[in-house]
Amino acid sequence: MAVEKNNAGSEESVIDGLLDYLGAKWLQIGDVGVPLLIVMSLGIVLSVYFLFNKRSGFTLLLAKFTHSSYGQLLLTSIGILWASIISVFGSKLQEQWFEGKTWGAENLVFGVSVVLAIILSVLHYIYSQIKEQHSQSRPSYNAINENSAHSVNVTSIVNSCMLDLKDAVTKEKRDKGSFLANGESTKQYNESLDSALKICMESILLVTKRIGEGNDGDTVKANIFNLIPSNLAHASFINQGEHKQEGESIFTKDSIDNSPFFLFSSNFHSRLEHCKYILACDQSYTCKIDRNNKFEQCGKSEKQEVPAICMPVSFNEYVSVGKLAHPNLFGAPEAITNNKEVYIGNISEYVDQFFSDLKKSPDYKDHITGHYESSIRSYYAKDKDKPKSILSIPIGKFNLNVNKLAYPSTYDQPACVLNIYVNRINFLENELKSEAFYSMLRPLCHNLSMLISLKIAYTSMLKVYNDTNTVDTAMTQVKEAVNG
Fold first, then answer.
1. Strand 295-296 with 248-252, pairing
2. Tens digits of per-residue pLDDT, 180-222?
3. 402 φ, ψ (degrees, to nearest 5)
4. Cα–Cα distance between 474 and 181 in angstroms, integer?
5. Tens-place pLDDT, residues 338-373
6. d(CA 293, CA 311)
7. Beta-strand (E) ranges in 246-364?
């Protein structure tokens, strides 16, 4: 019992001694202590916030300021102030820190200058990193290595699909109906094409994710917009109320009626008559990779209640004499008309520029309505994936002849657009880096073109056979197939 009492007494004496020491130190710090503690806490919180939100507009604004002439002047001034305090009040500070004298105002000024210097140094470091990323247009070794591995893998899958179709055509020529009339065989080959397309899309997302090293919080999404002549879509809606591709409905009349991208929208006919083509995406070939590198929504999805996204496209400002075309939006429509990849670094800025240009246009300024503008702005603002940047890549259709199935190097016409979305502004930093990235991604995009062309040729061959039940006709007519 005595030992326990002694232990308890010693513990109390230690605690009392610690409290007395802290109390004495608090009295030594005096009135300077509270504001200095607040300033230090604020400095730590701000520094951590800036480091974890490097790409926010507020952080970028302040970080950019530290690299301006005024920012450099401020940093220099704080450095001079800090050095002056050390020089003038060095002895006093030493007495207050190490000899137990009460802290004075010089300690507060010194502490504030140090905290300010730390915050500005953090911002200066952040913008230095950003500038370094901007100057590096070449992809990293890891990105190139990732791309090479996926390109080889997807190329082997494309070759396998080509050989399988060659074997099927050879078998069909020897024994008519042995393949095309076999529902199980045709379904199996169609599923293998769908699986190959899924792998190709996933590979593109992985390479895109790798290009943004150091931004692990990025979510990357990709989908395919099919290019369909508006007159074919119009005829489909008149006859059956929906437009089918590969025997499946990809969009309906509701998709056209509910789309915010048609300027002349008084009725359904007007929407289609004021454009030459429709870019339609029904989410069938949508794929997403999250911040943890997990895939979502990849592969052929079940039919959704959400209407397909539809955008008008025209190569001229007028579709006919006196009939003005819908304005082409940035991104996918621009990729089609220019037949070139289009990088949108900041969607919000491009939306503002899009309407600014329309309001200055002598042809469009009288047709722009508040409803049209608010609908498009609302579409991008309410997108659940919160995309901030887009890379739109035109994907061509090779005019494949199933009798030969050669490997073409250039495509005949665009068939669709691959859209890659990232939930970060300027994910490719600049135009030069976007061109370098697309050059690196070109083999995968070529393979995607091959797979889509195989899908179109195979579906057309099967359709011709089912319509005519004549294998020779199917073999000769498939080369006329077009997307849509």
1. unpaired
2. 888 888 889 988 998 999 999 999 999 988 886 666 678 899 9
3. -65, -15
4. 12
5. 988 999 989 999 999 999 999 999 999 898 999 999
6. 30
7. 248-252, 277-281, 287-289, 295-296, 309-313, 318-320, 323-324, 342-344
